[in-house]
Amino acid sequence: MSKTDGGLTRRDFLRGTACVTIAGTAALPARGQEPAAAPASAPTAKVVLVRDANALDAAGKPNGPVIEQMLDRAVCELLGEQDAGAAWKRLVKPDDTVGVKTNAWRFLPTPEALEQAIKRRVMDAGVPENRIAIDDSKIRSNPIFQQATALINVRPMRTHHWAGVGSCLKNYILFSDKPWSWHEDSCANLAGIWELPAVKGKTRLNVLVMLTPLFHGKGPHHFQKEYTWEYKGMILGTDPVAVDATGLRILEAKRLEYFNEVQSFVIPPKHIRVAEEKFHLGVADPSRIDVKKLGWQDDVLI
Amino acid sequence: MLALGPVLATAAGVVVMLSAEPADYSDLVTMAPTEVEGWTPKQPDGFYDGSNLFDYINGGAEVYRSFNVQRVLARQYAKPGEEDILADIFDMGSSQDAFGVYHHDMREGDSAGIGQESEYIRGVLSFWKGRHFVSVLSMDETADSKRAVLALGRAIAQAIREEGPAPDLLRLLPPKGRLPQHLYYFHDQFCLNAHYYVADENLLELGPDTEGVLARYRRAKAKDGPQWVLAVIRYPSVAKAKKALAGFLKRYLPDADAEGMAQTEDGKWAGVRRDGAVIVGVFDAPSQAEIQRMVEEVVQAKLCSEKKKECKDEQD
Question: Domain B4-159, CATH 3.40.710 — does that match?
């Protein structure tokens, strides 16, 4: 039996004739389907998962100095450098113009302490302050972003009502002049945004903030504090697909722990796998992602 | 839309500013109190309908549009030293659609005893009453904010005068083994797929004139026993149901037996059957026998429901 004309069905996924899962990477193994082994020549990726038990203060707010240390440790590990300054000099050059694409969602924004830590490190690498911008919704009209030669992509991990999850791939949607045009089919083609001239080839680092990830969303605002937890981590990598795929594994593991059963995402986060299989932007298959874990290991989940 | 409006004085003497609301939102405006536990409106109210709800809740609006949202009042409350509270009152046009949008989310939390059905989880209250769905959200829960959220909810629920019926299709769902947190109502493909992905294409020919209920079941005693899915969909006519069933069998279950059942690639069973203008679908079932049992229970419930209606008509 072949794929139905006019679109995929659940049975196509069960047969394995579709390239993405129904409801996240955990769903298919739960239905007794093992993913096919990747060929030996398949690309691999490295990400760094860094955590610190003190990343949040007693009130649950980001602890700036600790977050800066986490950032330094992770960047050193990612690039194989002993010194954070040397590592950052490999990421950005003094003649770069740097846009730090943040995320200002009111319920779970990128912590300002992290934004400022990134800015300091970019300046330490020799980029003058007047050629660095931190922005979210105004990036298309921001002159620094318009002239950017380098981008740093930083945002929190959360479930999302259109894309399944909002993570590094999704964070670039506002580079498009028609963001809504990427919403079709659970935002499956989000990686296409990374081919836009304002973006293509410019991203030097992706930072997926996992301090208090949102693992489930409900209601009109898709936010409830109940569905966040103090994971106190960050995932860093140069491959946005690998970073997102690793964050997704953690969310899936948390959902299993919380709900005590496989609880499918209401919208399947298929865009992460599509990013690899259609757009070849990075590695989505966890078996080909080397996750270097630093720091606090309690309840690491993966 | 968010222009400043008249200045009002609350009973507590606190001066608050409300926006100049369009006339046809006045009933919603009066439902939301102007002061509760020291929280007062922070900024002008927001007024939305299906055409501009995206401006307020972005992609989340799609669900409300799917359930025919008519009007929305959004009011943000503030209190010094406390997190803000967002109160959103959705006029869904019918109690069935208010039920539907409430049950679009899994409801695993405790009831707050507010409205016709409610859930309170750590600072967030959701309920439906009559044609209204209400969400009251505080960013985090403190003793004060919990008191305020619940008081706000009670005040709004009290201001909604009339209750309304839940979808009558619910009566066709067998109670045995039904998982109460997984109960969904839908009109279209978008919402069906959100609860149980069937296909990219609209194989069941769903749309604004169809209504369906979907529930999850576990009839094995073991807590981790198999779960399966029952969907009951009512079409506006027998002819439309016949056409939808034929198309679904052809595209999704071409290997179905004479009773409309087939074993799917994961070793489980799926089956569909039509009774009048209603299609009953069972998915992920552990056996053919379970499908037959469940379909029979639905058909019996439908028959019973129709007989009652006939009896009532005769009495009338």
Answer: no
